[in-house]
Amino acid sequence: MTKLSPDAFYELPAHSRGQLLALWGKADKALDTSAGFSGEIVFLDNGDGVFPRLTCAKFPRWRKDLSPALRAERFLREIKLQAAAHYHPNVHWPFNVILILGVPIAYFRRWEGDLSDFIEDSHWGDLGRLSLIIQLAAGLAHCHARGLIHQDLKPQNVFIRDLQSSFTLPPTDLWLRPLVADFGSVNLAADVGEFTGSRPYMAPEQWHETELGEWTSVFVLGIMLHELMSRGVHPIGERSSDWHRHINPGFNRWQQNKRWRRWVSAGCPIAQPLADYGLADLVTACLATSPSDRPPLREVQAMLLDMLHRRSASAAHQVDLFLRMAESQSAAAEWQHLKSSIEGLERAINEHYPRSTA
């Protein structure tokens, strides 16, 4: 019997790999691909008349410096952390996990895009933008309550669910739901001393390699609040679209460490403060260089909800109702299917890569 290569899954042609993932995911066919902090993604189409129609399969990136066993263990760690945030409607989660040819695979629902796809949308008004950032604060607070510190928060790691794509709803800006995604970077500073994230969204304590916590998420939330309400301007004073879309020369310039170290050393100045004084002051508070000077997430959430209420009592009521529902759902018992799937994946990894007892 021919022994398979440890990297047999990665050695498959991309088309064949997609077909295999579609088969195990019970999908009709594989579509395009993407990549995240620690994994590759294949998007799947379940076919006409199936809900949800679009899903995706994520698996660890192939890295020469990591053994197949270590790649599998690190990916399992990521999935366990992501499952620990279940169930909150503002957190992205897998619905199934399996092992294929020694490679762990996580299946997720595919949503309507990520936050970077919506920031510059001229048809999306302030009420919807405030509604979304309030929900994002709630999702992050839920993660921190469970000991999860996301070190790579950025618009690309905030997936967007558009309820209007699934349901017939009255026209309004309030139907977009953010989901915190990509847990590959979660708790890396505490676990292995790795502090990095995406440069334009790294907090001062990440650059200084000091303790991370809820205050780190508050800093990034402040950046994204400014981007959202300015329609795409980073607090540093430049539009962020080239970085989001990997367009040069802008992308390469934004990837330079010294650029962001200078900004942090200067006190994270906001080049073009928001016109709304209340929002501008909140962004300034979130971007305080000292973590102890930043407000906690729940306080940010409450302040934003109050600002939304001043603009529209009905919009604020709808968001508050959603937050109460989310709080109730997240307090529910564990999802046994997901729990048993992850336990099964861990057993399969341990059997496929037995640890040496020597």
Q: Could you please describe the fold and organization of this structure?
A:
The chain is an alpha+beta fold and 358 residues long. It has two domains: 8-110 and 337-352, Phosphorylase Kinase, domain 1, CATH 3.30.200; 118-330, Transferase(Phosphotransferase), domain 1 (Orthogonal Bundle). The chain contains 14 helices and seven strands. The protein has a five-stranded antiparallel β-sheet. A hairpin with an 8-residue loop joins strand 2 and strand 3. The longest helix is centred in the middle third of the chain and has 20 residues, at 126-145. It is globular and about 70 Å long.
Short description:
With 358 residues, the chain is an alpha+beta fold. Helices cover 44% and strands 13% of the residues.
Task: Give a quick set of tags describing it.
single chain, 358 residues, alpha+beta, Phosphorylase Kinase, domain 1, Transferase(Phosphotransferase), domain 1, 2 domains, 5-stranded antiparallel sheet, two-stranded antiparallel sheet, 7 strands, 44% helix, globular
List the helices and strands and how they pair.
Layout: H1 8-11, H2 14-24, E1 29-35, E2 39-45, E3 54-60, H3 68-84, E4 94-100, E5 103-109, H4 126-145, E6 158-162, E7 176-180, H5 188-192, H6 204-208, H7 214-230, H8 241-245, H9 250-254, H10 257-265, H11 277-286, H12 297-311, H13 313-330, H14 336-352
Helix pairs in contact: 3-14, 4-7, 4-12, 4-13, 7-11, 11-12, 12-13
Number of helices: 14
Report how far the terminal alpha carbons are from each other. Answer: 28 Å
For the residues shown, what is the average pLDDT? 94
Q: According to CATH, what is the topology of the largest domain?
A: Transferase(Phosphotransferase), domain 1
Shape: globular
- Total domain modules: 2
The number of strands is 7
Full CATH superfamily name of the largest domain:
Transferase(Phosphotransferase) domain 1
Which sequence of strands runs across the widest sheet? 1-2-3-5-4
